[in-house]
Amino acid sequence: MLLRDVVRDLEYELIKGSLDVEVSGVAYDSREVRAGSIFVAISGFTVDGHRYISNAIESGATVIVIEHHVDISDDVTVIRTEDTRNALALIAANYYGRPTEQMNLIGITGTNGKTSITYFIQAIYEQARRSIGVIGTIGTLIGGELRKNKNTTPESLNLQQIFAEMMDAGIMNCVMEVSSHALSLDRVAYCAFDTAVFTNLTPDHLELHHSMDEYFSAKARLFEMAKDVNVINADDPYGRRLIDRAVTYEAKVVTYGIEQQADVWAEAIELTADYTTYTAHTPVGSIEVKVYLPGMIYVYNSLAAIAAACMNGISLPDIKAGVESVRGIKGRLEVVYQDEDYRVIVDFAHTEDSLEKAISAIRPFTRGRVIVVFGVYAAPGELGLSKRQGMGKVAARLADLSIVTSDNPKEQDPAAIIEDVVAAIEREGGSYEAIIDREEAIRHAVAVCAPGDCILIAGKGHETTQIIGKKEIPFNEAELVRELFAR
User: Fold this and answer.
1) What contacts 386, CB < 8 A, 6 or more positions away?
2) Which residues contact 341 (CB under 8 A, 6 or more apart)?
3) 374 Cβ partners below 8 Å, 6+ apart?
4) Close Cβ partners of 130 (under 8 Å, ≥ 6 residues apart)
């Protein structure tokens, strides 16, 4: 492929070399450069790709894209642009033939609920016999093959490659989780979204966005990008702000909710310990739905999927059958052990809002105590402190016993993180124990639980590793729980 085709629509300055050179690949990591590659030097949070230009050239790069001046004497083509991160997204889209312009792309964003909505939409599309790929927290699914993702939303180059692979496999639809990081860092720039879905907004990732207004603005970018439909939660305060903003965008606004007037809404909601039933009303009719996941959060998440599917022309019978085929989502209120006396649930809840919703879903159907094992992942400064205090307050208010432990402390002091959480629990008068080692904390929860109690292990969900320092250590909570009860 000629370089001039790869940089189509890019604003740049040709520093040296020619646009009429053949390129055989694109890389932003010098270790992944091969002969004939374009190397895009990105200034990251901890590593500046401009420092590795000589390594890239040694590995065979023939084109270098930079955003600030670098002396390059080698016989290569050099292009300078204002923002190499954005340039990477455009170059990747061009290199892979702009695959999203040829497929139906559904993007889901919000603090909580993204993963379960992708599961519901995937199931609905499969019921309707429409091929669909999935990109998100659990991984990337192409033709039944699941691959692990480094991030919820992969880097732009990897993302465009995934879309191209889906197209090659004959997959014409894709549903993906779109993180605020991905929107802020241009990972999804030049993706042609047809439908965008908004779940909710609660404090999270403020170490990147600094304020809720910045966080909201990052999420709102997705809805400017959508071409056909913006599906928005009318019951969420930030959802209502987004509705007011989105009426000026290109895509049609379709709302969903329970409390506020909405285009798609639920009524006659019946909650049980194992499933929820309700009537979903849509612009094209109503259906009785049974969701095999407990709690109001899954009424909202399934309703969002119903709204998106309905607006994409899928029939109500297929929507109903698709939603009802989802019999569990890994790490989302997942019952990992249950008998007549005990119940242990693993959930990804890692914000105060998601922790509150998880405990609230469990509480009405627990005869004894709700014992919550949780930690707070490493987040710096005052924003991290605010998150730790917020989760401590929720646990103190809603749990009978909190066992505060480590999540992914990374290079922070886990004892200091726990101390902040514990201080909030004490101020609220909650009952707690603090155990730094997460495995020991789970063992202790199992040891102290009595018949009728329910243990909620929150924070890691589907994850099977724990990051301590710079090491990623294998750690499977579900397997540990089953082993403990088997003994």
Assistant:
1) 203, 206
2) 451, 452
3) 349, 355, 391, 395, 402, 403, 404, 405, 407, 456, 457, 458, 459
4) 172, 173, 314
Q: How far apart are CA 142 and CA 121, in angstroms?
A: 15
Taking only the tens place, the pLDDT of each residue in 185-237 is 999 999 999 999 999 998 765 556 568 888 898 999 999 999 999 999 999 99
Measured distance CA(115)–CA(11) in Å, rounded: 36
The DSSP code for 128 is T
- Cβ atoms of 234 and 240 closer than 8 Å: yes
DSSP 300: H
Percentage helix, strand, coil for the chain under 3-state DSSP, each rounded to 5: 40, 25, 35
Encoded tokens for 314: 């899928």
Return d(Cα 99, Cα 327) in angstroms, integer: 32
How many C-beta neighbours within 10 Å does residue 258 have?
17
User: CA 127, CA 132: separation in Å to the nearest integer?
Assistant: 11
Q: Judge residue 148's burial from the number of C-beta atoms within 10 Å of its C-beta, 0-12 exposed, 13-18 middle, 19 or more buried.
A: exposed
Entry pTM: 0.89
Q: pLDDT tens digits, residue range 329-360?
A: 888 899 999 999 999 999 998 888 899 999 99
Phi and psi at residue 74, in whole multiples of 5°? Answer: -65, 160
For residues 441 and 375, give the distance between their C-alpha atoms in angstroms, rounded to a whole number.
10
Sign, Cα dihedral of 22, 26, 30, 35: negative
Sign of the Cα torsion 341, 475, 407, 297 reads: negative
CB contact at 8 A, 137 and 152:
yes
Going from the N-terminus, what domains does the chain have, and what CATH number goes with each?
Answer: 3-95 (3.40.1390.10), 99-325 (3.40.1190.10), 334-486 (3.90.190.20)
The string of pLDDT tens digits covering residues 110-165 is 988 999 999 999 999 999 999 999 999 888 999 888 888 877 788 999 999 999 99
Neighbours of 462 (CB within 10 A): 18
Measured from the Cβ of residue 423, the count of other Cβ atoms closer than 10 Å reads 14
β-pairing, 370-374 vs 465-468, is unpaired
